Structure formats: structure tokens, C-alpha cells
Amino acid sequence: MIRRPRSGKNNADRRHADGRELTAIERVRLAREAARPQTLDYVERLIDEFFEIHGDRRFADDDAIVAGIGRFDGRPVALVGHQRGHTTAERIKRNFGRPNPEGYRKAARVYELAERFVLPLLTFIDTQGAEPGVGAEERGQAEAIARNLELMARLKTPVVACVIGEGGSGGALALSVGNVILMQENACFSVITPEGCAAILWREASPDKVAAAAQALKLSAPDLLRLGVIEEIVEEPPGGAHRDPNQAARMLGEAIGRHLRRLSRCAPQVLRRQRERKFAKIGDKFVAPVSVEKTRLLE
């Protein structure tokens, strides 16, 4: 089910005071705002009795991933989210929100707990991508992300994924296989950062090229709603979620609660099937049909 914001005004298309619409790169800057609420900020405002789980039982704990069990609106839920940090010291501690394999394996522990105890799963997405270092690759970064995708795809409990900041690449996808993907209006969600895209396409990351890449990537909430990647845009306070974190949490919590109530009425097999179909059909209507002649040539 695809929804616009509940108010009559579509705040996803908010404009500047002079009437100019926000550009894609301006939304990216808002998504990266240091004071923007992150997973632990929403946990503090939306989750009661939160019990955080640490470690992957193989190598270490990863502070870039927050995972645990708590109560949302009085109901037990499992929760996983990225945490980038607000201060310089916290950002260094949390590796700027770039998870290592142990972070994704910690998330996998919570996914399995959600399945075992029939708990709805909430995820909060806010990362430029997974840690690309040699150590992460040596410890199985790609396998850990792939395992998360597999686990989320087969869960028989409701999964609500929330893009609350910058969602990038496989590091974001490992938390994004939900029955519903909610996206705050100034968040972004894409396969690569605008800077990375510009560097690949034009071999330079000048401001003009980065802005052009952001526009071409269709990474904003309005674009992704039109493309059918997300189900709903969640409004933010005027100026962005960092202007009023309490109000931003209320808006996000209302959307989460509404979808959880709907999904909780579905049978486990239906939830899994719906999730599989949702991701299988993304992009279908944008693929150009292949002619018989072209098919023969390919053969």
C-alpha cells in the first residue's frame, strides 16, 4: 500500500521560503545533518524497556549497529538500527555508522530472535554504506550482508524498515528487506553516495557534478515513492527532523504503529510472500521489453 502523508499538504515537496523546491543534494545535506535524530534517539522516545544486545559471538561487538529487544506501544518488538554518532568522539567510536561484518552478524542474532519468539521487527537505516576496509573484507563482509538479506526475506513476522537518514549501498540493504519501507521526507536512499557516483561517471567530485549525480540517482523520498521502492513518506518538522526530534519521533512512531497494526493481522506465510513479491516487482515497469530478434541474438 502506497501512501502520501496524511495531511492535505504534501510536505515531501516542501520548498524554500522563496518558493524554490528543495533539490536532491539539499535533501542529502539534511540527511547528513549531525544533529539529526538517529536510532538511539528514536529508541529513547519510542521504545520502552529496551534491552540492547552486544556482540556477534564470533569476533567482537560493533558500535555502528544497535540491536535489541523492547516494547513499542506496549508490544514486544525486536529492533536493529545504524548509529553514526553526533559528536566527533562518538562518530569515531561508531565508525561513522559504517558497520563491520560483526555488526551485521549481531543484527542476524536479533532477526533470528524475532523469528523464534514471533516478534515484529523494526529497523532504522542511516549509513553511507558498510565498512570497505581490508579487515572487514577478510572477516566476510559480503557474506554477512548476504546472510542478513536471506534472513530478512524469509522472516514470518512483520518487518517495518525506516529510512531515517542516509541509506546507502548494501550496508543499508542489510536492514531494508521489510514488508513496509517508511522514509522520512528529508532522508535519502540509493546504491551509492552522490560523491561516489560523480567520481565514477565524471572522474571528479566537484560540487556541480555531485549535485548532478544526486539528481540522477533519484534518491529522494518523493522519487522513491513514485518508483514504488518505499510505501510511505513520513513528514518531518519544518526545517528537518533535527529541528524538533520529539515531534519527528511522534510522526515516525504514528506511521510505524499504523503499519504494525495492519501487518499483525496477516498470517506468517502471507507476510513472507508479500515481502518476496514486493521486492521481486521493484523496477518491473521500468525495464524495456526485449524483442524476439534481440532475444535470438543474445542466444
Structure write-up:
The protein is an alpha/beta fold. It has one domain: Alpha-Beta Complex (2-enoyl-CoA Hydratase, Chain A, domain 1). It is 43% helix and 17% strand. The chain is built from 13 helices and eight strands. Strands 1, 2, 3, 4, 5, 6, 7 and 8 form an eight-stranded mixed β-sheet that branches. α2 (39-46) crosses α11, α4 (101-116) runs parallel beside α6 (141-154) and α8 packs across α9 (207-217). The protein is globular, with a radius of gyration of 19 Å. The model is unreliable at 1-13 and 289-299 (pLDDT under 50).
What is the gist of this entry?
With 299 residues, this protein is an alpha/beta fold.
How are the secondary structure elements laid out?
Layout: H1 24-31, H2 39-46, E1 47-52, E2 65-72, E3 75-82, H3 88-93, H4 101-116, E4 121-127, H5 134-138, H6 141-154, E5 159-168, H7 169-173, E6 180-184, E7 188-190, H8 194-202, H9 207-217, H10 221-227, E8 232-234, H11 245-263, H12 268-281, H13 292-298
Parallel strand pairs: 3-4, 4-5, 5-6, 5-7, 6-8
Antiparallel strand pairs: 1-2, 2-3
Helix pairs in contact: 2-11, 4-6, 8-9
